[in-house]
Predict the structure.
Amino acid sequence: MKVTDLVKRLLVGRKLASAQLGETLLPKRIALPVFASDALSSVAYAPDEILLTLSLAGMAALSFSWEIAMAVAVVMLIVVMSYRQTVHAYPSGGGDYEVATVNLGPTAGLTVASALLVDYVLTVAVSVSSGIQNAKAMIPFLQGNEGIAAAVVILLLMAMNLRGVRESGALFAIPTYGFMIAVLGMTGWGLFRIFVLGEPLMAPTADLEIAPAPGYETFSGILVIVLLARAFSSGCAALTGVEAISNGVPAFRKPKSRNAAATLALLGGISITMLAGIVALANLTGLKLIDETGGSYFVQDGVPVDVPHETAMGQLARTVFDNFQLGFVVVIIATMVILFLAANTAFNGFPVLGSILARDGFLPRALHTRGDRLAYSNGIIALAVAAIALVLAFNASVTALIQLYVVGVFVSFTVSQLGMMRHWTRHLRTERDPRHRGRMIRSRAINAVGLTATGVVLVIVLASKFIYGAYLAVAAMAVMFIVMRSIRTHYDRVSREVAVSATDARMLPSRVRAVVLVSEVNKPTMRAVNFARATRASTIEAVTVAVDEDEVRRIVQEWEAQDVGVPLKVIASPYREVVEPFLNYVRGLRSDNPRDVVCVYIPEYIVGHWWEQLLHNQTGLILKARLNFMQGVMTTSVPYQLASSRYAIARAKRDSPAAWRHSGQGDVRMGQALDGRKRE
């Protein structure tokens, strides 16, 4: 096994055959951490974003955090109920893209796909960046190096996902469930201490006041509506990832739709409970956060104070477990890990959606191919590269990245709900069974409520976040839409060009003119000449380029001595070039008859080591690349295996012994005739 193959097997694992795809299907207990880790983990940063935005108006606005959190929870409940209809109606894995394409047309489908692809990239960037921000509470070294640290984490996540959905899901299950237990345990213990034991728990920032940012000193009128809308839109980051389950239905065990719907219900219930618990504890303990980039700051006794930034989760863990340090450490570690693993939702959703789009011709077809572990490896790598570029560009700043976030997912939510309403309306026209009609009417009502809620949120998000960075996300979606349309146009054009007509299958070339490139009179050249003669071309000639007079004279003498029976033509090259004079000669052989063909035979050395490639065949490679662009010209490589090629052959036999045994490769190339006799 080659060193590169060994490293690949260590990183990715053994290859899986296509027939083993069923072994990768997920039970609900694994599917929950695989597809829902993003939505579950959002409780670690959604409350922060609500409080940070409200802090711009100082103390007056913080009292609205509870109402905003409840509004976010209601929207999440509606979206979860709506997507339960989607996974039953469209279990093929197309999710929002399929719903929009089938019911609203290709343009709507491509709009949804553009939004989701951008949002998946942002999911990875925001989740990992938030994890880095939480990790700074325990690892001060990360201060100032957030972007690099986030890029390293994304690379590790990519490596884990390349091992396959089931294997990565098993790795992520324990920390995801650990996070649920840690957050629910912290919330329950904190509320127990406050309401049952009567202990006055106070967050580290409880005694501080917040001075509003410039322009927010008077919190009234239209400013209230604008700020609350912006805080609500930031808190709606908690809904990202809900749609991933609808894209991942094929990865569930049977019954797929039922298991996916059950997982969605679990996701909604747990996320809403954790979000409500975190915000309730924040209000009860007097927790405060400030947006330093926005201009708000802490004040104590009228004097500004500099307080190290700590997330809401960090402050609550420190407060609730003030006499139990291990509890604090567990919550922080669980939060840090789940935020990193939340990106796994995107690593499962993006490649699947990319595969479907590639199948439909909107993305490069390489994204439709499964890798060694039956995962869509190219999609995983593409997502990682895009997310790394983002975290490095924004230095893993959650506050900066969150402004780009949410827009895409609510575009897909809204269009998908409209598509589902069309779906139920279309089926109601033909359905006559009263029982089925009742179910469809209820489902349409749920999707109607979902459309209203997500549409309102989308308007709020666009209006409140556009100037703060959401325009970049909208621009990225527009660019993605144009790129995908262009790719589809290219594939359609190529399909039309290469389509077989009625005469193509029977039309033969009228003449074939064979040209053999001669750089030396040796065995590879003689083999090329013999192969050219075996094709019974209309004419055959050998061509050498006169770069050096003495060298050409020697070649001509040796050619005549061999009495090959094929004329050798010498092309003048006053500027000592090989490629351009040879190309001009071949170009001159082309006639006006479109059915004439020129076939160029190029001898090549086959070597066994990579460094030997640098010593041979460079001219041949350049010629082949240039000849490919000539109409009516074909190139034929005539390989000749040098002695060192036995090392490459040995490696091939070792890597694929069965394939090599049945292929019979190497016999002719090593100088053996097909009947087993040694060639002279």
